[in-house]
Model the fold of this input.
Amino acid sequence: MDVLASLHRPLDDLCEEELASAFQPLVAAAAAALPDAGLTRFVDCRFRGQGYEVTVPAPGDDAPTLRAAFRAAHRARHGHGDSDQPIEVVNLRVVAERPVVFPISDGSRRGGGDEAPKGRRMLVTRDGKRVRADVWTLGGIAAGTLINAPAVLAGPDATGLIEPGWRGTVHVSGAVILERM
Amino acid sequence: MRLDAVGLEVMAHAFASIAEEMGLVLVHSALSPNIRERRDASAALFDADGEMIAQAAHIPVHLGALADAVAAVRNLEPRPGELFLLNDPYAGGSHLPDLTLIGAIDIESRVGGYSVVRAHHSDIGGMTAGSMPAGARELYQEGLVIPPTRFTPDLERMVLANVRTPAMRRGDLAAQRAAVERGASGLRSLARRHGWAALSDAARELLDYAERRTRALLRKMPVKAAATDYLEGDGVSDDDLEIRVNIAIEDGIFHADFMGTSDAAPGNVNCPIAVTRSAVLFVVRTLLPDDVPMNGGVPRAIKVTAPLGCLVNARPPRAVAAGNVETSQRIADTVFRALAAGGCVVPAQGQGTMNNVTFGGMGEEGRGKGTPWTYYETIGGGQGASRGANGPSGVHVGMSNTLNTPIEVLEMEHPLRVRTYALRSGSGGAGTWHGGEGVVREFEALAPMETTLLTERRRHGPAGGAGGLDGKAGANLLNGQRLASKTTMRLVAGDVLRIETPGGGGWGKGHES
Done:
C-alpha cells in the first residue's frame, strides 16, 4: 500500500530535519496499517513549471542525493534532465510491502475451490442470440475444472466472457486457459 | 515482404505507438500550460522520402501540414542524426508560435526517416505578448521568423533572446527535443527487431494501403459542387472575406480548387498553402472509415489548388497568425458545405472558430520590474448536429483538438481569475438533432496586462443542416461592452473579459413539428 501526503516545496528550501519530520507521520501510518511490512520512502519531484512528477526513492534526507536521483530518473524516463529550472518536491510517499499468500486453488487438493458454477444468467451474444450462461467466480474455481461455453467469469476487477465455440480449463495458478473447440 | 492484414495492422500500431510515446514525453516534461495541459502539440514519424508513416491523434491543423515541414528540411540535405528547427509559414511552418523540431533519424548511418514534433509556444516575440496579435499587417510583426535551420545551441540562444519568456521556452524546447529523440530511438529499435528492409517495406505497404482505401471510397462518391463561406474580417477591417471552393471528386481523386477566393487580406487571417491542404485533408479524413490508417497515403488522393497570392495561398510577407487557427476552420466549413451541395450527408456546422485568447504582461510589479509572462488558450464550443446524433457541447471542433487549461493551473500560474466557466445554455441550434452548446468563460485581470482575441462566428452563426436551425453566434465582452471579433487591448486589474463561444448548428426539421 501507498501512504501519500502533499508537500509542495522547492527542494533547495528543504532542510534534512524538515524532510525527516514530514515523513514521520507517513511512516507511522504505513506501519500501523500494514504491520510487519517493509517500508520504502519516495518523493514525487518535478522541475518548476512542469505538470507531471517523477517518483524517486528517498532513502536518506539530504537534498543533493535527492536532486541527483531525480535528474537521473527524469533522464531515464523523458530523455533529458539538465534543466536549470529549480526542482520542486510535490508529494511524499511511503510504500509498505508485505508478501501475501495468493489464494489460488491447489491442484493437488481438489475441493480447494468451486467445482460448479455460482449461477446462471441470460445474455445476448454478438450475433444477437439469447443464451443462458454459467457464471463462475474467477480466482475461486478448483484446478482442473472444465468450463463450457457460454460462461461468464466474474473476477474482482474484470469480467470475462467465454463465447460459444470455446472451452476453458482451470490451471493450478487459478488462470483459465481457453481453447477453441 | 508482403504483409497480410494482421501484419499490416500490427506494424501500423507499432509505428503509431512510437508517435504516441513522443507526444507523452513532450506533455509530461514540458513547462507551459498550453503544451502540458492543453496539449497544443503534435508528433509524427515520416519515412526517408518525406511521407508520413504514423501520427499521434493530436491536432488536425498541425498534422496535415507537417509534410511541408519535412519537405523544407529535406531541401537542406540533412545528414543522419541532425536536428532542425523551423517556424517560417512560407517554408514548412504554419504560424510563428508553432515551432517545429525535426530529427533526421540515423538508421545504419543513413537518414532512415524523420521524427517530427510541432508545438505551439505561447510566445515567439513580435508586437504583442503571446505572439498572436490582432491587426498585424506583416509577418515580421508577428514574431521571430525561423527558416529551416540546424538546431544548435547558438540558434537556441538567438531564439531565446527574442522571446518574452525564455526560461519557459527553453524548458519546452528541451521537452520537444527529447520527444524527437524518443521518436528516433523508437524507430531504430523497431528496425533492430524487424530488420530495416522489412520495416521500410512495411511502411511503404501501409502508405499504399491507405491510398488504395482512400481512392476506393472516393471512386464510390463522384461529386462536383461548389460552396462559399465567409470570414468576419481580418483584424484590420471588419468586412467579410469570401472563401470559395469548387470540389470535384473524380477517378478516386478529391480535388479542391479555391479559384474565386478573396485576395490575401491586409490583416493576419492569411494561410500558407500547407494550412489549406491540411484543412482539406481533415475533411477527407472524416469521410474515411476509422480503420484506414492515417498516413501519407491519404493525401496522395487529394489535390488542392488555389490562385497564388489569395487568402488561402498567401505569399510572404503576409501576416498569418489567425490563418492557421481561424481561416483553416472556415476552409473546412466551406469544403463540407460543398459536399452537402453535392448531395453528401454531412454534419451541420460547428462553432467554426478556436476562440483564441492570449494574455501577457510584466508580472504584478509592472513597469518592467516583474517577471514577463504569456499565456495562450483556445476555448471549446458547440459541435454541429449530424443525422442521428446531437452535437456535443463545449468541445473543440474541426481543426483543433486541444484540452482546456484547468482553472487551478491557470490561476496558479498567471494573474488571472476565472469568474465563470459554463455551458452557454440555448446556444445550440434546434433540429431533429440539436447542435451542441457553446461555452461561457470569464477572466478577471488581477494585474495590468495585454490581451488579444482572434475569434470568428461573432456575426454569422454556424449554419444548421437539412433544415436545422443555426447555432447562436459568439460574443466577446469587456466589462459588459461588446468587442470586435479580433482585437488587441490593454486590461487593468479588475477588468472582466467574457467570451461566449458559438453553439453548433442543428440537423433536420424536427424542431418544426
Observations:
- Chain B touches chain A through 22 residues (CB under 8 Å).
- The mean pLDDT of chain B is 95.
